[in-house]
Request: fold
Amino acid sequence: MSGMRTALVCGAGGFIGSHLVKRLKQEGFWVRGVDLKYPEYSKTCADDFLIGDLRNPRVCQAALDRRFDEVYQLAADMGGAGFVFTGENDADIMHNSALVNLNVLESCRRQQTGRIFYSSSACMYPAYNQNDPDNPNCAEDSAYPAAPDSEYGWEKLFSERLYLAYARNHGVGVRIARYHNIFGPEGTWSGGREKAPAALCRKVALAADGETIEIWGDGLQTRSFLYIDECLEGTIRLVRSSWSGPVNIGSSERVTINQLAGMIMGIAGKNLTIRHVDGPLGVRGRHSDNRLIRGKLGWEPVQPLEEGLARTYAWIAGQVRAGGAQKT
Reply:
């Protein structure tokens, strides 16, 4: 490790965290990962991997037993609409994620960590600004008066303020990004916590030409989706900048869920019928407003959604062929 830059990735067993470890290793970092589990779909690239629960202060102290140049705090209790918006997981979401952030931040303060990145979410934006699917307001300065549409969003907003308070009171070098629907290969694609791109890729992969797939709601709700590689690029640029954020990291390419499904069908070469059914939906419209990130970092995501979907569909279709899954 002598002379090497060092990084800690909290949540390194998850989708974004495992990809981030690979990226940091490519840049020559010595990387420690920490999570409740190893990555599900590939072997970790971390030099050291600690299996542990970051809700436990002792685990945080063990993970942060030295000063790291960069700490990435991605660990959270989260999932897609089927997990976040049912109301059944609210207490766990708020309790677990808040505890992790409190513990990690305090350990970073004690070790005088160089920079700590916190992955917030676009779910913290007020629901009242996202009623029009064609004209949502997700500019960073629109966060207040606060009114997130879920307890997940409220916890993200609280934790943003926690990180900023540590920056003011303790001089911790924090960086905060609000992620907008990150997707790609090796992400959760079944089981109830998957997000829309993965869920629809799975449904299309499982369906034979001419069959029917289900979509929650009328499919006219809009979102933007960001491929994992661009998420990592924006995250690392922010961490190594002189600016704390918060800032959106997401795509400005807004699509309806019906359009998203149509893109995936086109990639798969399948003609399927959509049946709209009741289900948890979230807000009617959301996409990333990238004016601030362009101004502060001179960068924004540019990859067309369809390119990332093609890579993601190919990977999920391979998973389906290898092990199968339910169509729900």
About this structure: The chain is about 40% helix and 15% strand. The CA atoms of residues 166 and 172 lie 6 Å apart.
